[in-house]
Design goal:
Elements lengths: L11 E6 L3 H12 L4 E7 L2 H11 L3 E4 L8 H7 L5 E6 L5 H4 L6 E4 L4 H15 L6 H9 L1 E5 L4 E5 L3 E7 L2 E6 L3 E4 L3 H7 L5 E5 L2 E4 L3 E4 L3 E4 L2 E4 L5 H15 L1
Parallel strand pairs: 1-2, 1-3, 3-4, 4-5
Antiparallel strand pairs: 6-7, 8-9, 8-12, 9-10, 11-12, 13-14, 14-15
């Protein structure tokens, strides 16, 4: 069995979608050797996969992009609820497109056991319940985040940032007392933020969990502002918010 640590109270339900049987065999074998994963089914095309996802409920999708009939990206666009996705493909040129879908990881065939384990661990990181101690929480809130304002820099405590919005080639950083216009992107900003505090809810929005009020499947409230939850981010965002709610009880 793989040494990936099981950090949920149940196994992640997996679906492999690939039109090549050898690729299905490799991934199925890796999944069956991983104690924290459960293989639910394999599918050869997007239409078959979408039906399985709707009927059986899938947590983690190993998805080839280039499929007969309905391709992988088209299938994701048509799903009502998207599971976490690990793209698996022989074409590395698809990597740029994959970032639009907030995928867990991107694996280029032939897939090694080491890279498979790395991708699965990243999936578990997305749903890991908050395990920070109070000291860690204080430290993360005090972390200084650098914002390039174009020729100058401002340093803001992470705990005082409520949310960040994409604004063309800039970002709007909304803090507890002002808005800062920075020369960056949400993708770059997210890399510099403590992941214990911040959640990417949309390709254009990053929010601080401490300022989230009410939420539903399509939006949440931060400081009286209604912010959209992207369809491709929905599953991971709602799972994280539900876990945060449980830890507060």
């Amino acid at each position: 069995m793989s040494d990936i640590t099981e950090i949920t109270d149940r196994k992640l339900r997996c679906l492999v979608v690939d039109d090549e049987q050898p690729a299905q065999w490799v991934l199925s074998n890796f999944i069956n050797q991983t104690a924290s994963l459960e293989l639910i089914a394999c599918a050869y095309d997007g239409i078959e996969a979408a039906k399985i996802i709707e009927e059986k409920g899938i947590d983690l999708l190993f998805l080839d992009i280039n499929l007969p009939g309905m391709g992988g990206l088209e299938m994701l666009n048509n799903l009502k609820e998207q599971p976490m996705v690990i793209f698996t493909t022989a074409f590395s040129s698809y990597a740029v497109n994959s970032f639009e879908y907030n995928v867990v990881d991107y694996l280029v065939k032939p897939i090694s056991r080491e890279l498979f384990d790395r991708a699965v661990n990243r999936a578990f990181d997305r749903i890991r319940p908050g395990q920070n101690s109070q000291e860690d929480e204080v430290r993360d809130k005090a972390q200084l985040v650098e914002v390039n304002t174009g020729g100058d820099f401002e340093f803001i405590e992470a705990g005082k940032i409520m949310y960040i919005q994409s604004y063309g080639n800039y970002v709007k950083v909304f803090t507890t007392n002002k808005m800062i216009l920075g020369t960056s992107t949400t993708h770059k900003m997210y890399k510099s933020l403590p992941k214990s505090l911040f959640i990417r809810i949309h390709k254009s929005y990053i929010v601080n969990k401490d300022y989230i009020g009410t939420y539903n499947n399509s939006a949440l409230i931060v400081d009286k502002e209604k912010l959209p939850i992207g369809i491709s981010y929905r599953q991971s965002v709602i799972s994280r918010l539900e876990m945060l709610s449980k830890t507060k009880k």
